[in-house]
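= Protein in question =
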Amino acid sequence: MILPLNERQDRLLRELAAAQNICKHQAAARAIVEMATRHLHQDRVRELSDL
């Protein structure tokens, strides 16, 4: 997979990967899962609060 990043995004991804002692690919994959999980949870909470 090719993931074009600007300089800031690449720096942040490198820092995230280094902090977790993983490669940038793993850091990106984990970030995607975390954000998707958070987003879906927020949607579910919003949905339940409308009941």
User: Anything to note?
Assistant: The mean pLDDT is 94.
